[in-house]
Amino acid sequence: MAAEHNTYGCNYCKSAASFKGDYAKMPKTCPTLTHAELTKEVSGYLVEPYRSIMQVADQTPFDANRVLRNRVEELIVYLKALGLKRVGIAFCVTLLKETQNLIKYLHQEGLDSIAVCCRVGAVDYTEIGLTKAHPDKFAAICNPLAQSKLLNQADVDIVVQMGLCLGHDIILQQQCTAPVTTLVVKDRALDHHSVLALR
Ligand code: SF4
What we know:
about 200 residues, binds iron/sulfur cluster, alpha/beta, Rossmann fold, 2 domains, four-stranded parallel beta sheet, globular
């Protein structure tokens, strides 16, 4: 069974032939071929909640005039289509202005927002053994455990992640009861456009 743990064809494939269903161009190691039983199993999409998620996700990229929506517009369409009215927002303090704008847009669409800042709790670095650049000054840790607990208590339908640090985002995602979607990926060097490092 060791082969199960080898990489799949996607690791080095240049054809991406599954995109067009072109079997002749798929590498022999393409999971479409080697794992057909798994990759062609779609029954999970025919039952809720994935049935509705797949249908709505297919409709969000374009508006009625076939004009592309940006991700914020897509998010609002997605929330409304699925009836997700209580929207939790786990935001980084550096994105306070952008979070306030998101709250405004959500309210304009009749959606409730429950936002929680990353520095909630005002817990000093030293309380969890982290080293501070200036030991004599207070420095608040990011607190994704508290963010997720507050959002769970608020019984939100979905959580929108706004620029949490790498690692803190994982804690949030693991601890939130509601599904988490990422609107902004924290990337301090690239103004949150991480894909630019891969072009
Ligand atoms: S699914 Fe198959 S065709 Fe698509 S990238 Fe992976 S190996 Fe290539």
